[in-house]
Here is the input.
Amino acid sequence: MNAPATANDYISSLESDRQELVSAIRETVLANLDDGFVEIIDFGMIVYAIPLERYPDTYNGRPLMYAALASQKRYVSLYLMGVYADPNVADWFHREYRETGKRLDMGKSCVRFRKLDDVPFELIGAAIARYDAPSFIETANHARSRG
Here is the structure.
């Protein structure tokens, strides 16, 4: 089977329960995403990034990833690089997540969801809307300079 070329291809390749979960999170991301980001397939997942034409100085030569969505074996992962890149935003996100009453299953940037009821859609939307493309570039550059 060929690797998916678009987000719709990616979603249609999933089992129906995962299609619903990934689609719902994707809709929330897209509804809150600044126009400076594009939706692509990269690293085998749906990625929201700043295109290389706009910001070519990335550490890995790939578009600057802002968020990503992937169906894993046991859960769906939402990678929030804006939360990862700024400790103040991370504190905000954790505090707000506790307020939702939902259980947070998170690594450094990866929030994991097993079912639709696990997703705090309003908070996910707020986390995505937190940065426009220029401010995320600034945050990413600052995080890179910190090492």
Notes: The domain at 7-146 is CATH 3.90.1150.200 (Aspartate Aminotransferase, domain 1). DSSP finds six helices and five strands in the chain.
